[in-house]
Design goal:
This protein has helices at about 10-15, 20-30, 30-35, 75-95, 130, 140-155, and strands at about 35-40, 45-50, 60, 100-105, 120-125. The chain is α+β, with helices and mostly antiparallel strands. It binds zinc ion. Zinc ion binds near residues 21, 23 and 117.
Length: about 160
């Protein structure tokens, strides 16, 4: 298995954990641009992962604070998938990835960073990932890249 090079994640791993749920906070907040919320549905939203495993790493998150799929009703489950499809379309259009990893880490043992609030990861992949990533690995560069990625993805928001 190839390792994705993401040293800026150390800031997340080593950083102090803020209290309260960050997904709930962002859903209630109105500053979508500052919070990197790309799109809102009725019960779920798409947000950029600010500690990405790869450029364009998105998450689809239900608005309600539930830890597992059992806690969602069918409308929420449907929207979770509809927004997943939308996120993939936006990524294809803006970043032209060669593939995607899509999935959930359910529970701490599975590697969930936020274990109490369900979220689905969408990680775009390029065949040259491992060569490409070290080039952008400087921590300072990442917030700018995130902002660029956010705007690139928003360009096609009305189309999907
Ligand atoms: Zn929450």
């Amino acid at each position: 298995m190839k390792q994705i090079w993401a040293p800026w994640r150390m800031r997340y791993i080593m950083g102090k954990k803020k209290s309260g749920c960050f997904f709930c906070k962002n859903w209630k907040d109105t500053k979508d641009r500052e919070n990197y919320i790309l799109s809102r549905g009725k019960s779920c939203f798409i947000i950029l992962n600010i500690y990405p495993y790869n450029n364009g790493h998105l998450m689809v998150v239900p608005a309600r604070h539930v830890p597992s799929l059992d806690g969602l009703d069918e409308k929420e489950l449907l929207e979770l998938m509809v927004l997943t499809r939308k996120a993939i379309k936006l990524l294809k259009e803006a970043l032209h990835p060669h593939g995607f990893n899509v999935g959930m880490n359910l529970g701490e043992a599975a590697g969930a960073g936020v274990k109490d609030h369900l979220h689905l990861h969408i990680v775009p992949r390029w065949t040259e990932d491992t060569n490409f990533m070290p080039v952008i690995s400087e921590t300072k560069v990442i917030p700018e890249l995130l902002r660029d990625t956010y705007h690139k993805l928003r360009e096609n928001l009305d189309r999907f």
